Amino acid sequence: MRKRVVVIGGGFGGLAIAKALRRADVDVILLDKRNHHLFQPLLYQVATAALAATDIAAPIRNVLRHCENCTVLLAEADAIDTKKKYVHTTTGDVLAYDTLVIAAGATNRYFGHDDWEKHAPGLKSLEEALHIRRMILLAYENAERVASEEREAHLTFVVVGGGATGVELAGALSEIARKTMTKNFRNFDPKSARIVLLEGGKRLLSAFAPPLSERVREDLTALGVEVRTETFAESIDAEGITLKGGERIATRTVVWAAGVGGSPISRALGVPVDKMGRLPVRRNLTVEGLDESVYAIGDIAALEQDGAMLPGVAQVAMQMGEHVAENIELALEGKALKDFRYHDKGSMATIGRSRAIAEIGRVELTGFIAWCAWLFVHVMALVGFRNRVAVFSEWAYAYLTYQRSARIILKE
User: Fold this and answer.
1) For the packed helices 210-222 and 164-175, what is the interaxial angle rounded to 10 degrees?
2) Mean pLDDT of 368-397
3) Residue 342 and residue 326: Cα distance in Å, rounded?
4) Where is average pLDDT lowest: 241-250, 265-274, 378-387?
5) CA-wise closest residue to 314 among 369, 378, 364, 376
6) How much is the average pLDDT of 107-128?
């Protein structure tokens, strides 16, 4: 009887496993609560009206159409019995497994202040991206109709978190204010918008070399972004954000990019998780505290390499997915599992038009060259030819005109 592999999550890691096992003598069942795979690195561009939602998403069934041994189910796992080897879903299905792979990704983490979420949405899904886009565009619409003394709060945008998402969001918000929205309003100048980027650490993009972090700060400052490091939020409400120390920033738009944690399904395994809600895994990517039939990969897995935790980025998840697929085949042959070793292919971040940084091994790139490299890598990494063409066309249009074609406000 063929073994069954159940994969929870259709992100980069989950798809990598399904594709790598397409010729293996196993049946794969992939669960995801959404019917689409999302290219999260470009999610901020949907939030800032540069791209449409369909440009960075692809139906999971279509992506895996050539994997004849893979069944895709639109369902969310809500309970796992690791002793009897069953996964229970919100649709009432009970799925037996021989091998289970948790690839459910991450969720927004508010460091014990979950009440902030309704006032400072994070950016982990298309729904959140469209909600943030609505907030941003409505801020300008409201500024057009309110009295001048109320306008400043509507035109103040605060991004909490100086990682890649926060930096890219801040740069995009500056471009919207200084380029995209010019001559669109009659009662105020969009260039008067204030963009504030808050980071709790000493520097932005701390995973990059210090000179590159400083270059990012300089570029953002040149774009008119107010960068504030070693700054923490004390409270967030509908009228603004209060910083530790008592300073108050009146704003109607706060975006959270300060922290992520493992998906809640990590707690369904009955084993200890780390402070970020991630599952500690062995070197072979099986979950600590369980037998070697349960793996965790991607953002939900906590694994240290060379003295540092592996980052929650797409290339880590994809390499982990391919490695788990190899280990599953080794297990079928009765062979020992191999340990995982992550090979860093480099990191990139874009700050705005013709501004980016890239760190590839010992090579550091900045400015236009880094920006071109960022564009190429992200276009090629998109799933599907249609998405690549659509995104490239939108970027070419935006580069030539400074306009963003997805400036549509949808009702929620």
Assistant:
1) 20
2) 88
3) 15
4) 378-387
5) 378
6) 94
Model pLDDT, residue 400: 74
Give tens-digit pLDDT for 151-188.
Answer: 999 999 999 999 999 999 999 999 999 999 988 999 99
CB < 8 Å & 24+ apart, contacts of 206-212:
206/162, 206/163, 207/163, 207/311, 207/347, 208/347, 208/349, 208/357, 208/359, 209/359, 209/364, 211/364, 212/357, 212/359, 212/364, 212/366
Angle, alpha carbons 77-78-84 (nearest 5°): 85
Backbone angles phi, psi at 222, to 5 degrees: -65, -30
How large is the angle between the packed helices 314-332 and 12-20, nearest 10 degrees?
A: 30
pLDDT at 96 over 90: yes
Provide the b/e sequence for 20-29 (b: ≥16 CB within 10 Å): bbbebebbbb
Read off the pLDDT band of 394 (50, 70, 90). confident
* Helix then strand then coil, % of the chain, to nearest 5: 35, 25, 40
pLDDT of residue 406: 79
The first and second tokens of residue 202, run together, are 């000493």
For 337, phi and psi rounded to 5 degrees?
-75, 150
Question: What pLDDT was estimated at residue 261?
Answer: 86
pLDDT of residue 398: 84
Question: Which among 328, 309, 224 is positioned nearest to 5, based on CA atoms?
Answer: 328
Report, as residue numbers or ranges, the catalytic residues.
168
CA distance 8 to 263: 11
The mean pLDDT of 379-393, rounded to a whole number, is 85
CA dist., res. 330 & res. 30, Å (int) = 20
Give the integer Cα–Cα distance in Å for 405 and 408: 8
Grouping H, G, I as helix, E, B as strand and the rest as coil, residue 326 is helix
Q: Give the span between the Cα atoms of 99 and 22, in whole angstroms.
A: 15
Helices (H), ranges, 198-313? 210-222
Q: Is residue 119's pLDDT more than 80?
A: yes
What does the pLDDT read at residue 262?
Answer: 85
Distance CA 181, CA 167 (A): 20
- CA torsion, ordered 214, 217, 222, 224, to nearest 10 deg: -170
Rounded-to-10 torsion of CA 255, 127, 386, 323: 80
- The rounded distance, in Å, linking the Cα atoms of 393 and 40 is 19
